[in-house]
Design brief:
Helix content is 42%, strand content 23%. The chain folds into two domains: 79 residues, Helix Hairpins (Orthogonal Bundle); 155 residues, Histidine kinase-like ATPase, C-terminal domain (Heat Shock Protein 90), CATH 3.30.565. The protein is flat, with a radius of gyration of 25 Å. Helix 2 packs parallel to helix 5. The chain has five helices and ten strands; from the N terminus they run E-E-H-H-E-H-E-E-H-E-E-H-E-E-E. A hairpin with a 2-residue loop joins strand 1 and strand 2. It is an alpha+beta fold. It has a six-stranded mixed beta sheet with strand order 4-6-7-9-8-10, with helices on one face.
Length: 271
């Protein structure tokens, strides 16, 4: 407990015979102040990184446009258009992730029946434009009763996990994704795993940080797993843990059923 003490002397015949004091519990105030500091630091970092990641592709596009305008330039314009298209696509994906993060922060949590199979099928359809998406082998196993949570946030979680699995797949083997879900009256336990390149153990404690990229192969926004973490926290009845360092090491997510409580906890479970 954190407290502030207030005191004043008790006088009698111009002599101090005691002290009258009160204390105020400021534990909640300190907690709120610490949360505010954390959020302000995240906001500063967010603004800086968003500005940088928005300007970088725009600067590249502007450079290509100026290059194409040079007198006597005999380069094939189609090459410039192709590169500009890639930059615009990257920018569009980045803006989409930023908007998803903003929506998660502002939108109230709604609870209804979650159709996991439908969400996963729709996610693969939406991500079909990604290189290699059509070659992913999917294994989905759902056991138990119906699952109730926030469908939009569940969809965002799977969109970012599946997107990462596609982007960071191994090129020397058939890419696979395995999703296993067990649901009972208390909770829904989700296990998500893939046989991709994995993440080095030294980077494991940082993979859920905003804008952290654990591999040079990364060309994404850097906020995918951060959005996963924030979506889990927003429900306030979920746990997130995992160790995706090596092939098939899963990420585990547990959601409490609506009439149950689940301690909010984000971290790693090492074997």
């Amino acid at each position: 407990m954190n407290v502030i003490l207030y005191g004043m002397p008790v006088m009698h015949n111009q002599e101090t015979i005691g002290i009258f004091g009160v204390y105020v519990d400021i534990t909640d105030r300190i907690r709120v102040e610490e949360e505010l500091k954390t959020r302000n630091a995240e906001l500063d970092n967010f603004v800086y990184k968003v500005s940088h990641d928005l300007r970088a592709p725009l600067s590249s596009i502007l450079g290509l446009v100026n290059l194409a305008k040079l007198p006597g330039n005999t380069d094939d314009p189609a090459e410039y258009i192709s590169i500009i298209g890639d930059k615009v696509e990257h920018l569009d994906h980045f803006i989409g992730d930023v908007l998803s993060h903003s929506k998660n922060l502002k939108m109230d949590v709604t609870t209804s029946k979650v159709d996991i199979k439908k969400i996963i099928d729709q996610t693969f359809t939406d991500l079909n434009y990604l290189d290699g998406a059509r070659n992913i082998k999917q294994t989905l196993r759902i056991e138990g009763i119906e699952f109730y949570s926030d469908p939009w946030r569940i969809s965002e979680i799977f969109r970012n996990l599946i997107s990462n699995a596609i982007k960071y797949r191994r090129l020397d083997t058939e890419p696979e994704i395995s999703v296993r879900i067990q649901v009972d009256n208390l909770r829904a336990e989700i296990s998500f795993a893939d046989n991709g390149i994995g993440i080095e153990e030294k980077n494991l404690t940082r993979i859920f940080e905003m804008f952290y990229r654990a591999t040079e192969q990364s060309d994404g926004s850097g906020i995918g797993l951060y959005i996963v973490k924030k979506c889990c926290r927003k429900t306030r009845r979920s746990n997130l843990c995992g160790q995706p360092a090596w092939t098939w090491n899963p990420i585990y997510i547990t959601f409490a059923q609506p009439d149950q409580q689940c301690v909010e906890q984000t971290g790693f479970r090492f074997s």
